[in-house]
Design a protein that fits this description.
2 domains; about 65% helix
Length: about 90
C-alpha cells in the first residue's frame, strides 16, 4: 500500500513539473499552449517537421498494435508460442 502511495505522489509531482510556465505559455501557438516549454514552431518548416514526425509515430503505433494483436506467425515452434503457452 505504501508503495502505491509513493508512486501516486511521484506521478503528481512529475505531472506538475511537466506543465509549461506562464512565460513559455505566452510564446506558444494556440495548438501547444500549456503543453510544452520554450518557443513554439518558428516557421512553416517547423510545422512540416512536426507533421511528418507525428505521421511516422502514428503509423508506427498502428503497426505495433496490429502485429501484437494479429501476429502472422502460425508455427507451433515459434518462440512467441513458447512464451505464451508457458
Amino acid at each position: 500500500m505504501r508503495k502505491k502511495i509513493n508512486i501516486i505522489i511521484i506521478l503528481m509531482v512529475v505531472s506538475v513539473a511537466l506543465q509549461s510556465c506562464p512565460v513559455c505559455e505566452k510564446q506558444q501557438p494556440a495548438l501547444f499552449k500549456g503543453i510544452t516549454h520554450g518557443a513554439g514552431p518558428q516557421s512553416n518548416w517547423d510545422w512540416l517537421i512536426i507533421a511528418i514526425i507525428t505521421l511516422i509515430t502514428l503509423v508506427t503505433l498502428i503497426y505495433s498494435i496490429k502485429y501484437i494483436v494479429f501476429p502472422k506467425e502460425k508455427n507451433e515452434e515459434h518462440i512467441k508460442n513458447l512464451i505464451l503457452n508457458n
